[in-house]
């Protein structure tokens, strides 16, 4: 789908810190579970939106550190900046709209009168967001008093307390919820409102998201007090909002299942992946599953059996070709055969594989072109290559059954080539 031009089956709007990303999970296992589910089942017909308090610079930092997928829309600085697509095209109309009854200088004049407030770092100060730290026991009083003073100065603002320590001052029309309403309105005008929307959060600046009409919502188990209190008072018995019993991205997966929003089993939760069949054939499942088996093989997390070796080999077409990112072309079968002796070479080590931006198009009755970015994390750092695969469902002449990879073509992603290119398999 041309991402925003089609009606999405599901739109997920998620906060990042302590919602999509669990900073207490050094291996990012819950995020990787979400990634595998999203790419195999949702990416092709749904929309992923990140909505964070982070500024462009600190969002970039997080992206370089954690295995975050590429969202379709990125909403930064607590709903004051909206960017579209992978190249992050800014929505200038939104920023312009936020100038209404907003004057940053007056906000600064008033905030500096509060000795309880400590200024946040410069990168977190944005054109429509002025941010401070506050002690928990001063927060309520400061929010009330500052809001009054700003109103007396003729401004229309919103003062938000988040994460037990942050205060953000924004234009009244801004915030995560307002930004989502704006996006929904845009899509609705074109008749493309998503069938379902799920909002996900853990702290005060996410409260707004749960007030958008018609959305489903999940407050993750590890949420901060200020959001939990809001939930207790406002939506405890709301049929569309839950407080998950699971943390972060696992709470998001839990909510997908709870509300019946679509497939809820992450391929990472399936032990016997080789035998795993879903109700409908989908090319994205084939590639996610293939690379997961590859990861587990090298981590020795699956059995080293003839049956699995046979399965791994049979997914490659006997005449299949791979063009490696180095430009070298070789037989796909030989390449897979070369992985077999590497069973367990990453046992107990840092080694993860995930796919991003999986898309596919059908090119004949039984073949598809599948494209994605393949990421590999190891002790040597992160590598990524753009991959295109020709996938065949059946080949009468070769008597192959089930999906097989016929042609694989890879190119390094700028800045992410493997330092040891001989260690790159596929
Ligand atoms: C993020 C931002 C910070 C903001 C906080 C709460 O941590 O970096 O500036 O105050 O979110 O919205
Ligand atoms: Mg958060």
List keywords for this structure.
11 helices, 8-stranded mixed β-sheet, elongated, alpha/beta, binds magnesium ion, 29% helix, binds alpha-D-glucopyranose, 426 residues, 6-stranded mixed β-sheet
The largest β sheet comes out as: 8 strands, mixed
Radius of gyration, CA atoms, in whole angstroms: 24 Å
User: Could you give the count of β-strands?
Assistant: 18
Helix content: 25-40%
- Any ligands, ions or cofactors bound here, and which? alpha-D-glucopyranose, magnesium ion
List the helices and strands and how they pair.
Layout: E1 10-14, H1 29-42, E2 47-51, H2 56-65, E3 73-76, E4 81-84, E5 89-90, H3 92-97, H4 104-111, E6 118-119, E7 130-133, H5 136-152, E8 157-162, E9 166-171, H6 176-189, E10 196-201, E11 216-219, H7 225-234, E12 241-243, H8 248-258, H9 283-299, H10 306-314, E13 316-323, E14 329-331, H11 332-339, E15 351-364, E16 367-378, E17 381-392, E18 404-412
Parallel strand pairs: 1-2, 1-10, 2-3, 10-11, 11-12, 13-18
Antiparallel strand pairs: 3-4, 4-5, 6-7, 7-9, 8-9, 13-14, 15-16, 16-17, 17-18
This protein binds alpha-D-glucopyranose and magnesium ion (MG).
The site of magnesium ion has 6 residues, from loops.
């Amino acid at each position: 789908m041309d991402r925003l031009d089609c009606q999405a089956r599901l739109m997920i709007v998620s906060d990042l810190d302590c919602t999509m990303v669990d900073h207490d999970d050094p291996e990012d296992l819950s995020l990787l579970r979400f990634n595998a589910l999203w790419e195999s089942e949702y990416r092709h017909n749904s929309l992923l939106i990140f909505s964070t308090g982070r500024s462009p610079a600190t969002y970039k930092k997080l992206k370089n550190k954690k295995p975050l997928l590429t969202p379709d829309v990125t909403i930064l600085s607590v709903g004051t900046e909206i960017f579209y697509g992978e190249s992050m095209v800014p929505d200038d109309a939104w920023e312009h709209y936020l100038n209404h009854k907003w004057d940053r200088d007056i906000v600064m004049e008033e905030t500096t009168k509060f000795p309880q407030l400590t200024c946040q770092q410069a990168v977190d100060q944005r054109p429509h967001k002025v941010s401070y730290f506050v002690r928990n026991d001063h927060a309520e009083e400061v929010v009330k008093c500052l809001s009054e003073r700003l109103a007396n100065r003729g401004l229309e603002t919103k003062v938000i307390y988040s994460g037990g320590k942050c205060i953000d001052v924004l234009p009244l029309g801004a915030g995560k919820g307002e930004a989502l309403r704006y996006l929904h309105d845009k899509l609705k005008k074109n008749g493309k409102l998503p069938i379902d929307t799920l909002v996900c959060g853990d702290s005060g600046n996410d409260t707004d998201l749960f007030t958008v009409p018609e959305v489903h919502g999940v407050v993750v188990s590890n949420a901060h007090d200020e959001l939990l209190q809001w939930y207790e008072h406002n939506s405890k018995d709301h049929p569309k909002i839950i407080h998950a019993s699971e943390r972060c991205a696992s709470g998001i997966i839990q909510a997908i299942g709870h509300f019946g929003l679509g497939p809820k089993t992450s391929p990472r939760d399936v032990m016997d992946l080789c035998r795993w069949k879903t109700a409908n054939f989908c090319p994205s499942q084939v590639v996610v599953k293939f690379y997961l088996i590859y990861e587990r093989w090298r981590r020795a997390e699956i059995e080293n059996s003839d049956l699995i070796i046979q399965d791994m080999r049979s997914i490659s077409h006997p005449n299949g070709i791979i063009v490696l990112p180095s430009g070298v072309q070789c037989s796909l079968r030989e390449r897979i055969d070369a992985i077999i002796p590497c069973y367990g070479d990453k046992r107990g080590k840092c080694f993860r594989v995930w796919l991003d931006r999986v898309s596919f198009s059908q090119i004949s009755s039984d073949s598809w072109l599948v494209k994605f970015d393949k990421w590999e994390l190891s002790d040597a750092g992160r590598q990524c290559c753009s991959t295109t695969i020709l996938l065949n469902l059946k080949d009468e002449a070769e008597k192959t059954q089930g999906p097989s990879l016929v042609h694989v073509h890879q190119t390094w992603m700028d800045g992410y080539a493997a330092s040891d290119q001989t260690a790159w398999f596929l």
